[in-house]
UniProtKB/TrEMBL annotation:
Pfam families: C2, Copine. Residues 520-533 have a biased composition (Basic residues). InterPro entries: C2_dom, C2_domain_sf, C2B_Copine, Copine, Copine_C, VWF_A, vWFA_dom_sf. Residues 249-448 form the VWFA domain. Residues 1-72, 79-206 form the C2 domain. It comes from Pan troglodytes (Chimpanzee). This is CPNE7 isoform 4. The keyword Transferase does not apply. Residues 497-541 are annotated as: Disordered. It comes from the Eukaryota.
Protein backbone atom coordinates (compact mmCIF):
# COMPACT_ATOMS: atom_id res chain seq x y z
CA UNK A 1 0.00 0.00 0.00
CA UNK A 2 2.73 2.42 0.93
CA UNK A 3 5.61 3.38 3.19
CA UNK A 4 6.03 6.30 5.59
CA UNK A 5 8.92 8.69 5.75
CA UNK A 6 11.83 7.90 8.08
CA UNK A 7 11.71 9.63 11.47
CA UNK A 8 15.28 9.89 12.72
CA UNK A 9 16.40 9.22 16.30
CA UNK A 10 13.01 8.76 17.93
CA UNK A 11 11.46 6.08 20.11
CA UNK A 12 8.01 7.66 19.71
CA UNK A 13 7.75 8.60 16.03
CA UNK A 14 4.67 10.30 14.62
CA UNK A 15 4.56 9.73 10.87
CA UNK A 16 3.16 12.51 8.70
CA UNK A 17 2.69 10.34 5.63
CA UNK A 18 -0.99 9.81 4.84
CA UNK A 19 -2.27 6.88 2.79
CA UNK A 20 -5.55 6.81 0.93
CA UNK A 21 -7.19 3.39 0.73
CA UNK A 22 -10.42 2.38 -0.98
CA UNK A 23 -12.86 1.08 1.61
CA UNK A 24 -15.31 -1.72 0.76
CA UNK A 25 -17.75 -2.53 3.52
CA UNK A 26 -18.69 -5.81 1.87
CA UNK A 27 -15.19 -7.29 2.10
CA UNK A 28 -12.78 -8.29 4.84
CA UNK A 29 -9.78 -6.10 3.95
CA UNK A 30 -6.85 -7.43 5.93
CA UNK A 31 -3.95 -5.08 6.57
CA UNK A 32 -0.47 -5.60 7.99
CA UNK A 33 1.71 -2.84 9.41
CA UNK A 34 5.45 -3.38 9.92
CA UNK A 35 7.91 -1.05 11.69
CA UNK A 36 11.63 -1.04 10.88
CA UNK A 37 14.72 0.66 12.27
CA UNK A 38 16.59 1.91 9.22
CA UNK A 39 20.36 2.30 9.13
CA UNK A 40 21.16 3.37 5.61
CA UNK A 41 21.31 7.06 4.69
CA UNK A 42 19.32 6.42 1.53
CA UNK A 43 16.25 5.10 3.31
CA UNK A 44 14.51 1.75 3.62
CA UNK A 45 16.09 -1.62 2.86
CA UNK A 46 14.50 -4.87 4.05
CA UNK A 47 17.82 -6.72 4.08
CA UNK A 48 19.79 -4.12 6.05
CA UNK A 49 17.16 -2.73 8.43
CA UNK A 50 15.98 -4.21 11.72
CA UNK A 51 12.41 -5.46 12.03
CA UNK A 52 10.89 -3.88 15.17
CA UNK A 53 7.50 -5.54 14.99
CA UNK A 54 4.26 -5.80 13.10
CA UNK A 55 0.49 -5.69 13.60
CA UNK A 56 -2.42 -7.14 11.65
CA UNK A 57 -6.05 -6.05 11.63
CA UNK A 58 -8.88 -5.39 9.18
CA UNK A 59 -9.71 -2.05 7.66
CA UNK A 60 -13.23 -2.49 9.01
CA UNK A 61 -11.89 -2.60 12.57
CA UNK A 62 -10.02 0.66 12.07
CA UNK A 63 -13.05 2.36 10.51
CA UNK A 64 -15.41 1.16 13.24
CA UNK A 65 -13.10 2.17 16.11
CA UNK A 66 -11.63 5.29 14.42
CA UNK A 67 -8.36 4.67 16.28
CA UNK A 68 -6.73 1.30 16.86
CA UNK A 69 -3.75 0.79 19.19
CA UNK A 70 -2.15 -2.64 19.20
CA UNK A 71 1.16 -4.06 20.51
CA UNK A 72 3.86 -4.70 17.96
CA UNK A 73 4.62 -8.39 17.58
CA UNK A 74 7.87 -10.02 16.50
CA UNK A 75 8.08 -13.31 14.64
CA UNK A 76 6.19 -16.24 16.14
CA UNK A 77 3.84 -13.85 17.96
CA UNK A 78 6.32 -12.63 20.58
CA UNK A 79 5.76 -9.14 21.99
CA UNK A 80 8.27 -6.51 20.89
CA UNK A 81 8.80 -5.27 24.42
CA UNK A 82 6.33 -2.50 25.22
CA UNK A 83 6.24 -1.20 21.66
CA UNK A 84 2.85 -0.39 20.17
CA UNK A 85 1.41 1.13 17.02
CA UNK A 86 -1.61 3.40 16.64
CA UNK A 87 -3.56 3.65 13.39
CA UNK A 88 -6.14 6.39 12.86
CA UNK A 89 -8.84 6.39 10.16
CA UNK A 90 -10.69 9.33 8.71
CA UNK A 91 -13.33 9.38 6.00
CA UNK A 92 -12.21 11.72 3.25
CA UNK A 93 -15.23 11.31 1.01
CA UNK A 94 -16.02 14.60 2.71
CA UNK A 95 -19.04 16.32 1.18
CA UNK A 96 -21.00 13.33 -0.01
CA UNK A 97 -23.91 15.09 -1.61
CA UNK A 98 -25.17 16.93 -4.60
CA UNK A 99 -25.85 20.50 -5.60
CA UNK A 100 -28.97 21.85 -7.26
CA UNK A 101 -28.28 24.93 -9.37
CA UNK A 102 -30.48 27.20 -11.44
CA UNK A 103 -29.16 29.94 -13.73
CA UNK A 104 -30.75 32.73 -15.73
CA UNK A 105 -29.32 35.59 -17.75
CA UNK A 106 -30.34 39.04 -18.90
CA UNK A 107 -29.41 41.35 -21.76
CA UNK A 108 -27.21 38.86 -23.58
CA UNK A 109 -25.61 39.94 -26.85
CA UNK A 110 -27.69 39.23 -29.94
CA UNK A 111 -25.63 37.05 -32.29
CA UNK A 112 -28.31 36.36 -34.90
CA UNK A 113 -29.17 38.63 -37.81
CA UNK A 114 -32.90 38.01 -38.24
CA UNK A 115 -33.75 36.73 -34.76
CA UNK A 116 -32.47 36.75 -31.23
CA UNK A 117 -29.74 34.51 -29.82
CA UNK A 118 -30.45 30.91 -28.79
CA UNK A 119 -28.31 30.79 -25.64
CA UNK A 120 -27.10 27.83 -23.60
CA UNK A 121 -24.65 27.65 -20.70
CA UNK A 122 -21.74 25.31 -20.03
CA UNK A 123 -20.26 24.79 -16.57
CA UNK A 124 -16.67 23.57 -16.31
CA UNK A 125 -14.42 22.46 -13.46
CA UNK A 126 -10.79 23.60 -13.63
CA UNK A 127 -8.54 20.62 -12.93
CA UNK A 128 -5.14 20.69 -11.25
CA UNK A 129 -3.44 20.77 -14.65
CA UNK A 130 -5.60 23.81 -15.56
CA UNK A 131 -7.53 21.70 -18.03
CA UNK A 132 -11.30 22.12 -18.22
CA UNK A 133 -13.70 19.29 -17.41
CA UNK A 134 -17.27 19.75 -18.59
CA UNK A 135 -19.65 19.37 -15.66
CA UNK A 136 -22.98 20.31 -17.21
CA UNK A 137 -24.50 21.80 -20.34
CA UNK A 138 -27.93 23.38 -20.13
CA UNK A 139 -30.67 23.13 -22.67
CA UNK A 140 -30.95 25.73 -25.44
CA UNK A 141 -33.46 28.54 -24.90
CA UNK A 142 -34.62 29.61 -28.34
CA UNK A 143 -34.84 33.22 -29.47
CA UNK A 144 -34.33 34.80 -26.04
CA UNK A 145 -31.82 37.34 -24.71
CA UNK A 146 -33.09 36.87 -21.14
CA UNK A 147 -33.09 33.07 -20.83
CA UNK A 148 -34.10 31.10 -17.75
CA UNK A 149 -32.46 27.67 -17.83
CA UNK A 150 -33.90 24.66 -16.08
CA UNK A 151 -32.49 23.74 -12.68
CA UNK A 152 -30.04 20.83 -12.67
CA UNK A 153 -28.40 18.60 -10.10
CA UNK A 154 -24.78 17.53 -9.99
CA UNK A 155 -22.69 15.71 -7.42
CA UNK A 156 -20.29 17.83 -5.42
CA UNK A 157 -17.50 15.49 -6.49
CA UNK A 158 -18.26 16.13 -10.14
CA UNK A 159 -18.72 19.86 -9.63
CA UNK A 160 -15.55 20.68 -7.74
CA UNK A 161 -13.95 17.41 -6.58
CA UNK A 162 -15.37 18.21 -3.13
CA UNK A 163 -13.06 21.25 -2.98
CA UNK A 164 -15.22 24.33 -2.55
CA UNK A 165 -12.40 26.68 -3.54
CA UNK A 166 -11.62 24.89 -6.82
CA UNK A 167 -12.07 27.29 -9.77
CA UNK A 168 -15.15 26.91 -11.94
CA UNK A 169 -15.75 28.44 -15.35
CA UNK A 170 -19.07 29.23 -17.03
CA UNK A 171 -19.34 29.83 -20.77
CA UNK A 172 -22.42 31.13 -22.59
CA UNK A 173 -22.96 30.33 -26.25
CA UNK A 174 -25.42 31.11 -29.04
CA UNK A 175 -26.54 27.78 -30.41
CA UNK A 176 -25.91 26.98 -34.07
CA UNK A 177 -27.52 23.91 -35.63
CA UNK A 178 -24.35 23.27 -37.66
CA UNK A 179 -22.28 23.06 -34.48
CA UNK A 180 -20.45 26.35 -34.97
CA UNK A 181 -21.80 27.99 -31.85
CA UNK A 182 -21.10 31.68 -31.36
CA UNK A 183 -19.31 32.59 -28.15
CA UNK A 184 -21.19 35.17 -26.07
CA UNK A 185 -19.12 35.41 -22.90
CA UNK A 186 -17.73 33.77 -19.79
CA UNK A 187 -17.04 34.25 -16.09
CA UNK A 188 -15.10 32.41 -13.39
CA UNK A 189 -16.10 31.61 -9.82
CA UNK A 190 -15.88 28.91 -7.14
CA UNK A 191 -18.54 26.92 -5.33
CA UNK A 192 -17.58 28.73 -2.14
CA UNK A 193 -18.08 32.09 -3.86
CA UNK A 194 -21.40 30.92 -5.28
CA UNK A 195 -22.69 30.02 -1.83
CA UNK A 196 -21.56 33.27 -0.25
CA UNK A 197 -22.95 35.43 -3.06
CA UNK A 198 -26.26 33.57 -3.04
CA UNK A 199 -26.62 33.99 0.73
CA UNK A 200 -25.97 37.72 0.35
CA UNK A 201 -28.40 38.06 -2.57
CA UNK A 202 -25.69 39.16 -4.99
CA UNK A 203 -25.17 36.01 -7.02
CA UNK A 204 -24.60 37.50 -10.46
CA UNK A 205 -21.60 37.80 -12.74
CA UNK A 206 -20.74 39.85 -15.79
CA UNK A 207 -20.65 37.63 -18.86
CA UNK A 208 -17.49 38.89 -20.54
CA UNK A 209 -16.10 38.29 -24.02
CA UNK A 210 -12.30 38.78 -23.61
CA UNK A 211 -11.86 39.87 -27.25
CA UNK A 212 -14.46 42.63 -26.92
CA UNK A 213 -12.99 43.76 -23.62
CA UNK A 214 -9.54 44.06 -25.17
CA UNK A 215 -10.74 46.01 -28.20
CA UNK A 216 -13.30 48.37 -26.65
CA UNK A 217 -12.63 50.66 -23.73
CA UNK A 218 -16.32 51.26 -23.19
CA UNK A 219 -17.11 47.54 -23.16
CA UNK A 220 -18.66 46.37 -19.89
CA UNK A 221 -20.14 42.95 -20.60
CA UNK A 222 -22.12 40.84 -23.02
CA UNK A 223 -24.88 40.32 -20.50
CA UNK A 224 -25.27 39.23 -16.90
CA UNK A 225 -25.64 35.66 -15.59
CA UNK A 226 -27.60 35.24 -12.36
CA UNK A 227 -27.55 32.27 -10.00
CA UNK A 228 -31.29 32.02 -9.41
CA UNK A 229 -31.17 29.13 -6.94
CA UNK A 230 -28.61 27.05 -5.07
CA UNK A 231 -29.36 24.08 -2.84
CA UNK A 232 -26.78 21.77 -1.32
CA UNK A 233 -28.09 18.35 -0.34
CA UNK A 234 -25.87 16.35 2.00
CA UNK A 235 -26.16 12.59 1.36
CA UNK A 236 -24.95 10.47 4.24
CA UNK A 237 -23.00 7.33 3.47
CA UNK A 238 -22.87 4.09 5.43
CA UNK A 239 -19.45 5.18 6.67
CA UNK A 240 -20.93 8.43 7.97
CA UNK A 241 -23.32 6.47 10.14
CA UNK A 242 -20.68 4.07 11.43
CA UNK A 243 -18.25 6.87 12.27
CA UNK A 244 -21.13 8.91 13.67
CA UNK A 245 -21.91 6.26 16.27
CA UNK A 246 -24.45 3.98 14.57
CA UNK A 247 -24.21 0.49 16.07
CA UNK A 248 -24.83 -2.66 14.05
CA UNK A 249 -26.69 -5.56 15.68
CA UNK A 250 -26.33 -8.93 13.97
CA UNK A 251 -28.75 -11.85 14.32
CA UNK A 252 -28.38 -15.23 12.61
CA UNK A 253 -31.24 -17.68 12.08
CA UNK A 254 -30.46 -21.28 11.08
CA UNK A 255 -32.79 -23.76 9.37
CA UNK A 256 -33.16 -26.97 11.40
CA UNK A 257 -35.86 -28.59 9.25
CA UNK A 258 -35.75 -32.29 8.32
CA UNK A 259 -35.09 -31.53 4.65
CA UNK A 260 -31.46 -30.85 5.60
CA UNK A 261 -30.95 -34.55 6.30
CA UNK A 262 -29.88 -36.42 9.41
CA UNK A 263 -26.83 -34.58 10.84
CA UNK A 264 -25.22 -37.97 11.53
CA UNK A 265 -25.24 -38.73 7.81
CA UNK A 266 -22.33 -37.38 5.76
CA UNK A 267 -24.80 -36.33 3.04
CA UNK A 268 -26.62 -33.99 5.42
CA UNK A 269 -26.16 -30.25 5.05
CA UNK A 270 -25.76 -30.21 8.84
CA UNK A 271 -23.10 -32.92 8.94
CA UNK A 272 -20.14 -31.83 11.08
CA UNK A 273 -16.93 -32.86 9.36
CA UNK A 274 -13.92 -32.21 11.61
CA UNK A 275 -11.82 -31.38 8.54
CA UNK A 276 -14.24 -29.39 6.41
CA UNK A 277 -16.97 -26.91 7.45
CA UNK A 278 -20.44 -27.60 6.10
CA UNK A 279 -22.37 -25.16 3.93
CA UNK A 280 -24.11 -23.56 6.90
CA UNK A 281 -20.81 -22.83 8.62
CA UNK A 282 -19.26 -21.46 5.44
CA UNK A 283 -22.14 -19.05 4.86
CA UNK A 284 -22.26 -18.06 8.52
CA UNK A 285 -18.56 -17.30 8.76
CA UNK A 286 -18.27 -15.53 5.39
CA UNK A 287 -21.02 -13.02 6.15
CA UNK A 288 -20.60 -12.90 9.92
CA UNK A 289 -16.92 -12.01 9.88
CA UNK A 290 -17.72 -8.93 7.84
CA UNK A 291 -20.47 -7.82 10.21
CA UNK A 292 -18.62 -8.42 13.46
CA UNK A 293 -16.18 -5.56 12.90
CA UNK A 294 -19.11 -3.13 13.18
CA UNK A 295 -20.77 -4.65 16.25
CA UNK A 296 -19.30 -2.90 19.28
CA UNK A 297 -19.88 -5.69 21.82
CA UNK A 298 -19.25 -8.54 19.33
CA UNK A 299 -22.25 -10.41 20.73
CA UNK A 300 -24.61 -11.94 18.18
CA UNK A 301 -28.09 -13.33 18.64
CA UNK A 302 -28.24 -16.90 17.32
CA UNK A 303 -31.67 -18.41 16.64
CA UNK A 304 -33.01 -21.57 15.07
CA UNK A 305 -36.29 -22.60 13.45
CA UNK A 306 -38.03 -25.75 12.26
CA UNK A 307 -36.88 -28.18 14.97
CA UNK A 308 -38.29 -30.00 17.96
CA UNK A 309 -36.43 -28.71 20.98
CA UNK A 310 -36.01 -29.97 24.54
CA UNK A 311 -37.37 -30.48 27.08
CA UNK A 312 -40.83 -31.21 25.60
CA UNK A 313 -39.59 -31.57 22.02
CA UNK A 314 -42.27 -29.34 20.60
CA UNK A 315 -41.74 -27.69 17.21
CA UNK A 316 -40.31 -24.18 17.49
CA UNK A 317 -39.73 -21.58 14.79
CA UNK A 318 -37.93 -19.19 17.11
CA UNK A 319 -35.54 -20.67 19.64
CA UNK A 320 -32.12 -19.74 20.98
CA UNK A 321 -29.55 -22.25 19.80
CA UNK A 322 -27.71 -21.84 23.10
CA UNK A 323 -30.98 -22.85 24.80
CA UNK A 324 -30.98 -19.72 26.94
CA UNK A 325 -34.19 -17.83 26.07
CA UNK A 326 -33.21 -15.01 28.43
CA UNK A 327 -29.93 -14.37 26.62
CA UNK A 328 -29.68 -15.73 23.07
CA UNK A 329 -26.42 -13.91 22.31
CA UNK A 330 -23.09 -15.60 21.61
CA UNK A 331 -19.56 -14.21 21.87
CA UNK A 332 -18.52 -13.43 18.32
CA UNK A 333 -18.91 -15.58 15.24
CA UNK A 334 -16.89 -18.34 16.87
CA UNK A 335 -19.40 -18.37 19.71
CA UNK A 336 -22.23 -18.81 17.21
CA UNK A 337 -20.33 -21.66 15.54
CA UNK A 338 -19.84 -23.42 18.87
CA UNK A 339 -23.48 -22.94 19.87
CA UNK A 340 -24.58 -24.36 16.50
CA UNK A 341 -22.36 -27.41 16.85
CA UNK A 342 -23.57 -28.03 20.42
CA UNK A 343 -27.20 -27.55 19.40
CA UNK A 344 -27.33 -30.14 16.61
CA UNK A 345 -27.22 -33.29 18.81
CA UNK A 346 -29.91 -31.90 21.13
CA UNK A 347 -32.66 -31.09 18.64
CA UNK A 348 -34.81 -33.16 16.29
CA UNK A 349 -34.94 -31.77 12.77
CA UNK A 350 -38.57 -31.31 11.75
CA UNK A 351 -40.47 -28.56 9.93
CA UNK A 352 -42.02 -26.66 8.25
CA UNK A 353 -39.73 -23.87 7.01
CA UNK A 354 -41.37 -20.85 8.65
CA UNK A 355 -39.25 -17.70 8.88
CA UNK A 356 -41.90 -15.04 9.55
CA UNK A 357 -41.70 -15.53 13.36
CA UNK A 358 -37.98 -14.72 13.45
CA UNK A 359 -38.35 -11.74 11.09
CA UNK A 360 -41.12 -10.41 13.32
CA UNK A 361 -39.01 -10.93 16.44
CA UNK A 362 -36.09 -8.88 15.14
CA UNK A 363 -38.53 -6.30 13.76
CA UNK A 364 -40.04 -5.82 17.22
CA UNK A 365 -36.60 -5.02 18.62
CA UNK A 366 -35.91 -2.61 15.74
CA UNK A 367 -39.32 -0.97 16.24
CA UNK A 368 -38.56 -0.42 19.91
CA UNK A 369 -35.32 1.30 18.89
CA UNK A 370 -37.13 3.38 16.26
CA UNK A 371 -39.67 4.56 18.83
CA UNK A 372 -36.93 6.17 20.94
CA UNK A 373 -36.25 8.69 18.17
CA UNK A 374 -32.51 8.05 18.38
CA UNK A 375 -32.22 5.49 15.56
CA UNK A 376 -28.59 4.85 16.50
CA UNK A 377 -28.96 1.08 16.10
CA UNK A 378 -29.27 -0.87 12.85
CA UNK A 379 -30.31 -4.52 12.74
CA UNK A 380 -29.16 -7.21 10.33
CA UNK A 381 -30.86 -10.60 10.16
CA UNK A 382 -29.04 -13.42 8.36
CA UNK A 383 -31.33 -16.36 7.53
CA UNK A 384 -29.68 -19.61 6.39
CA UNK A 385 -32.13 -22.07 4.84
CA UNK A 386 -32.03 -25.10 2.56
CA UNK A 387 -35.34 -24.55 0.80
CA UNK A 388 -38.26 -22.33 -0.08
CA UNK A 389 -40.14 -20.98 2.92
CA UNK A 390 -43.55 -22.50 3.55
CA UNK A 391 -45.10 -19.44 5.18
CA UNK A 392 -44.60 -17.21 2.14
CA UNK A 393 -47.65 -15.01 2.79
CA UNK A 394 -46.72 -14.36 6.41
CA UNK A 395 -43.10 -13.77 5.40
CA UNK A 396 -44.09 -11.17 2.82
CA UNK A 397 -46.26 -9.44 5.40
CA UNK A 398 -43.43 -9.43 7.95
CA UNK A 399 -40.92 -8.05 5.43
CA UNK A 400 -43.23 -5.23 4.32
CA UNK A 401 -43.74 -4.19 7.94
CA UNK A 402 -39.99 -4.39 8.60
CA UNK A 403 -39.19 -2.24 5.55
CA UNK A 404 -40.06 0.86 7.59
CA UNK A 405 -37.58 -0.05 10.31
CA UNK A 406 -33.76 0.24 10.63
CA UNK A 407 -33.32 -3.34 9.51
CA UNK A 408 -31.99 -5.45 6.62
CA UNK A 409 -32.40 -9.15 5.90
CA UNK A 410 -30.02 -11.52 4.14
CA UNK A 411 -31.42 -14.87 3.06
CA UNK A 412 -28.79 -17.36 1.94
CA UNK A 413 -29.98 -20.51 0.21
CA UNK A 414 -27.83 -23.46 1.28
CA UNK A 415 -27.59 -26.65 -0.75
CA UNK A 416 -28.76 -27.57 -4.24
CA UNK A 417 -32.51 -26.92 -3.97
CA UNK A 418 -34.45 -24.87 -6.52
CA UNK A 419 -34.72 -21.43 -4.94
CA UNK A 420 -36.60 -19.78 -7.82
CA UNK A 421 -39.65 -19.03 -5.68
CA UNK A 422 -37.46 -17.24 -3.14
CA UNK A 423 -36.58 -14.51 -5.63
CA UNK A 424 -39.96 -12.89 -5.00
CA UNK A 425 -38.70 -11.80 -1.57
CA UNK A 426 -35.79 -9.93 -3.12
CA UNK A 427 -37.19 -6.67 -4.45
CA UNK A 428 -34.72 -6.44 -7.33
CA UNK A 429 -37.37 -7.39 -9.90
CA UNK A 430 -40.11 -5.18 -8.52
CA UNK A 431 -41.56 -3.83 -5.32
CA UNK A 432 -42.42 -6.56 -2.82
CA UNK A 433 -46.04 -6.39 -1.66
CA UNK A 434 -47.83 -7.95 1.25
CA UNK A 435 -50.79 -10.30 0.61
CA UNK A 436 -53.00 -7.24 1.22
CA UNK A 437 -51.24 -5.31 -1.54
CA UNK A 438 -49.24 -2.97 0.70
CA UNK A 439 -45.86 -2.17 -0.91
CA UNK A 440 -42.54 -2.34 0.92
CA UNK A 441 -41.18 1.10 1.71
CA UNK A 442 -37.69 0.02 0.59
CA UNK A 443 -35.90 -3.12 -0.52
CA UNK A 444 -34.47 -4.65 2.67
CA UNK A 445 -34.00 -8.25 1.49
CA UNK A 446 -31.02 -9.71 -0.32
CA UNK A 447 -31.45 -13.34 -1.37
CA UNK A 448 -28.72 -15.44 -2.95
CA UNK A 449 -28.04 -19.16 -3.35
CA UNK A 450 -24.72 -19.81 -1.63
CA UNK A 451 -23.59 -22.19 -4.37
CA UNK A 452 -23.44 -19.24 -6.78
CA UNK A 453 -21.11 -17.33 -4.51
CA UNK A 454 -18.64 -19.69 -2.93
CA UNK A 455 -16.47 -20.15 -6.03
CA UNK A 456 -16.68 -16.59 -7.32
CA UNK A 457 -13.89 -14.05 -7.26
CA UNK A 458 -14.22 -10.41 -6.46
CA UNK A 459 -13.70 -7.66 -9.03
CA UNK A 460 -10.11 -7.39 -7.82
CA UNK A 461 -9.52 -11.11 -8.28
CA UNK A 462 -9.43 -12.08 -4.62
CA UNK A 463 -10.57 -15.69 -4.09
CA UNK A 464 -11.72 -17.36 -0.90
CA UNK A 465 -14.84 -18.09 1.05
CA UNK A 466 -14.83 -14.71 2.82
CA UNK A 467 -15.23 -12.92 -0.50
CA UNK A 468 -18.27 -15.01 -1.35
CA UNK A 469 -20.25 -12.72 0.92
CA UNK A 470 -19.34 -9.56 -0.99
CA UNK A 471 -22.43 -9.29 -3.24
CA UNK A 472 -24.63 -9.96 -0.22
CA UNK A 473 -22.92 -7.68 2.25
CA UNK A 474 -22.82 -4.82 -0.23
CA UNK A 475 -26.58 -4.50 0.25
CA UNK A 476 -27.16 -5.91 3.71
CA UNK A 477 -26.37 -2.96 5.95
CA UNK A 478 -28.04 0.13 4.68
CA UNK A 479 -28.69 2.80 7.27
CA UNK A 480 -28.04 5.38 4.58
CA UNK A 481 -30.79 4.00 2.34
CA UNK A 482 -33.09 3.71 5.36
CA UNK A 483 -32.43 7.40 6.04
CA UNK A 484 -33.73 8.31 2.60
CA UNK A 485 -37.17 7.19 3.73
CA UNK A 486 -37.15 8.17 7.41
CA UNK A 487 -35.87 10.85 9.76
CA UNK A 488 -32.62 9.79 11.40
CA UNK A 489 -30.82 12.11 13.82
CA UNK A 490 -27.19 12.75 12.94
CA UNK A 491 -24.59 11.21 15.19
CA UNK A 492 -21.68 13.18 16.53
CA UNK A 493 -19.09 14.00 13.92
CA UNK A 494 -21.19 12.97 10.93
CA UNK A 495 -21.13 16.35 9.23
CA UNK A 496 -17.73 17.86 8.72
CA UNK A 497 -17.95 20.21 5.79
CA UNK A 498 -20.32 22.04 3.54
CA UNK A 499 -22.80 24.86 3.84
CA UNK A 500 -26.54 25.08 3.90
CA UNK A 501 -29.10 23.58 6.28
CA UNK A 502 -27.85 20.04 5.75
CA UNK A 503 -24.36 20.92 6.95
CA UNK A 504 -25.33 21.43 10.54
CA UNK A 505 -26.38 18.98 13.19
CA UNK A 506 -29.93 18.11 14.13
CA UNK A 507 -32.30 15.86 12.27
CA UNK A 508 -31.23 14.52 8.93
CA UNK A 509 -33.75 15.32 6.24
CA UNK A 510 -32.74 12.96 3.45
CA UNK A 511 -33.12 14.20 -0.09
CA UNK A 512 -33.81 12.32 -3.28
CA UNK A 513 -30.72 11.34 -5.23
CA UNK A 514 -30.03 13.41 -8.30
CA UNK A 515 -31.81 11.92 -11.32
CA UNK A 516 -29.95 11.24 -14.52
CA UNK A 517 -30.94 13.45 -17.43
CA UNK A 518 -31.31 11.79 -20.84
CA UNK A 519 -28.79 12.92 -23.38
CA UNK A 520 -26.60 14.55 -20.78
CA UNK A 521 -23.25 15.44 -22.40
CA UNK A 522 -20.97 14.63 -19.48
CA UNK A 523 -20.37 11.86 -16.99
CA UNK A 524 -21.67 12.28 -13.49
CA UNK A 525 -19.06 11.89 -10.77
CA UNK A 526 -19.27 8.73 -8.72
CA UNK A 527 -17.58 9.52 -5.41
CA UNK A 528 -16.14 6.53 -3.64
CA UNK A 529 -15.48 6.07 0.01
CA UNK A 530 -11.85 6.38 0.94
CA UNK A 531 -10.15 6.15 4.26
CA UNK A 532 -7.15 8.22 5.30
CA UNK A 533 -4.86 6.34 7.61
CA UNK A 534 -2.19 7.96 9.73
CA UNK A 535 -0.34 6.27 12.51
CA UNK A 536 2.26 6.62 15.17
CA UNK A 537 4.41 4.09 16.97
CA UNK A 538 5.75 4.12 20.50
CA UNK A 539 8.60 2.26 22.09
CA UNK A 540 10.31 1.56 18.77
CA UNK A 541 13.53 2.99 17.36
Amino acid sequence: VGRTEVVRSSLHPVFSKVFTVDYYFEEVQRLRFEVYDTHGPSGFSCQEDDFLGGMECTLGQIVAQKKVTRPLLLKFGRNAGKSSITVIAEDISGNNGYVELSFRARKLDDKDLFSKSDPFLELYRVNDDQGLQLVYRTEVVKNNLNPVWEAFKVSLSSLCSCEETRPLKCLVWDYDSRGKHDFIGEFSTTFEEMQKAFEEGQAQWDCVNPKYKQKRRSYKNSGVVVLADLKFHRVYSFLDYIMGGCQIHFTVAIDFTASNGDPRNSCSLHYINPYQPNEYLKALVSVGEICQDYDSDKRFSALGFGARIPPKYEVSHDFAINFNPEDDECEGIQGVVEAYQNCLPRVQLYGPTNVAPIISKVARVAAAEESTGEASQYYILLILTDGVVTDMADTREAIVRASRLPMSIIIVGVGNADFTDMQVLDGDDGVLRSPRGEPALRDIVQFVPFRELKNQRTARGAPGIHHAASPVAANLCDPARHAQHTRIPCGAGQVRAGRGPEAGGGVLQPQRPAPERPGRPCRRGQPRLHTVKTWRASGGQ
